[in-house]
């Protein structure tokens, strides 16, 4: 199977529902869900059936266009009020990835800019904008891939964490994009190590699945094995994705990412964050301001096991993301260019946030 051919999320041809590849079932079952009600789309985001910051943004764009198409009024102001209600509901699905809010705000911008137009036309514009968000995402990942690829040398070992792959975007991924770019350039000698990424195993279930099926030399390691893998000299570079980057370059990504960055610094390995500019939140100064999602304890004690693997009643802490301090980051690769510290200056030079 060529994973690059799979759509993480798309709008049905008759524009009545979304088709979401259910990532909770991967790698064993490839199943596409048809979801139509806004509550079911909200739940698909919450339960990580569709996940990864850019894919959440693409899904949110389609979702709000779909749900807005069913608002029954010819009055623009009333349409706008109902739109905002639905938008706020979707925005409550997950707190950390800024792409969710970014995409919904962009969609709201279309409504507000079109208030003089008939409601039927606003609805069409929303569908067009959602499609543009999706198409731009493919181009953005491709561009990140080419920039990331330019940092690679033949034979490199690459470590990645979680899934910032094609499954987390519309295509190519962000952290995996340099690996797919290398394939497109005919390189077959890269070695990729992926952390399994406890507790939800996005590395094992998703990254290992997609890279292996693309024919990339992939080795799965437990998160706790990153240190010895680096010490053995097997890793030359780290690429990770992100859910939100603040003005100073602090980066929220899947829990465990900051530990990888600390290890990389210890072993002198360059650590790169692959970040579509939509993931850079210039309204926040530092990572301390990023809301960190706390997820249910069962994800740690029971999920994926055939029986519970922790004592009943044990206290569990399950933050889904952590923040990597900007001082540990060698560079942030955006589709507009590679940013080196000081990141705020680099972002501004690329027009990010304007
Ligand atoms: O909880 P998830 O699976 O949505 O977390 C995903 C990540 O942390 C990814 O690394 C991030 O969203 C970047 S995806 C290109």
Write up this protein.
- There is one protein chain.
- This protein is of the alpha/beta class and 354 residues long.
- The protein has helices at 38-46, 53-68, 76-91, 98-113, 119-149, 177-184, 202-213, 226-231, 257-267, 298-301, 343-349, and strands at residues 9-11, 18-21, 32-35, 157-160, 191-195, 218-221, 237-240, 244-246, 251-254, 271-274, 280-281, 321-324, 331-334, 337-339.
- A hairpin with a 4-residue loop joins strand 8 (244-246) and strand 9.
- The chain is globular, with a radius of gyration of 20 Å.
- The model has no long low-confidence stretch (mean pLDDT 97).
- The structure holds 5-S-methyl-1-O-phosphono-5-thio-D-ribulose (MRU).
- 5-S-methyl-1-O-phosphono-5-thio-D-ribulose is lined by residues 48, 51-54, 97, 162, 164, 168-169, 173-174, 202, 241-243, 253-254, 320.
């Amino acid at each position: 199977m060529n994973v690059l051919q799979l759509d993480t999320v798309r709008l049905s041809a008759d524009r009545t529902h979304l088709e979401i590849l259910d990532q909770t079932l991967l790698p064993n079952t490839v199943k596409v869900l048809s979801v139509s009600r806004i509550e079911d789309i909200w739940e698909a985001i919450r339960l990580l059936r569709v996940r990864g910051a850019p894919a959440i943004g693409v899904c949110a764009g389609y979702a709000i266009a779909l749900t807005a198409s069913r608002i029954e009024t010819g009055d623009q102001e009333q349409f706008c009020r109902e739109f905002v209600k639905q938008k706020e509901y979707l925005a409550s699905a997950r707190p950390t990835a800024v792409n969710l809010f970014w995409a919904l705000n962009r969609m709201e911008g279309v409504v507000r800019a079109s208030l003089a137009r008939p409601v039927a036309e606003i609805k069409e514009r929303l569908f067009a904008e959602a499609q543009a968000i999706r198409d731009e995402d493919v181009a953005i990942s491709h561009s990140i891939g080419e920039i990331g690829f330019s940092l690679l040398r033949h034979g490199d070992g690459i470590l990645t964490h979680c899934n910032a792959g094609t499954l987390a975007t519309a295509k190519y991924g962000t952290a995996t994009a340099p690996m797919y770019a290398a394939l497109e350039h005919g390189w077959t000698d890269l070695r990729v190590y992926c952390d399994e990424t406890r507790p939800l195993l996005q590395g094992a279930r998703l990254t290992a699945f997609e890279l292996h099926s693309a024919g990339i030399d992939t080795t799965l390691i437990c998160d706790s094995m990153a240190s010895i893998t680096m010490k053995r000299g097997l890793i030359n570079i780290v690429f990770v994705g992100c859910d939100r980057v603040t003005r100073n370059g602090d980066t929220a990504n899947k829990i465990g990412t900051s530990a990888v960055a600390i290890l990389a610094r210890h072993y002198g390995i360059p650590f790169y964050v692959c970040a579509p500019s939509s993931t850079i939140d210039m309204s926040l100064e530092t990572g301390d301001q990023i809301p960190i999602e706390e997820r249910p304890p069962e994800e740690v004690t029971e999920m994926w096991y055939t029986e519970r693997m922790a004592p009943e009643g044990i206290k569990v802490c399950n933050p889904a993301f952590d923040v990597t301090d900007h001082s540990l980051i060698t560079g942030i690769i955006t589709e507009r260019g590679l940013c080196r510290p000081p990141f705020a200056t680099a972002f501004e030079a690329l027009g990010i946030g304007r």
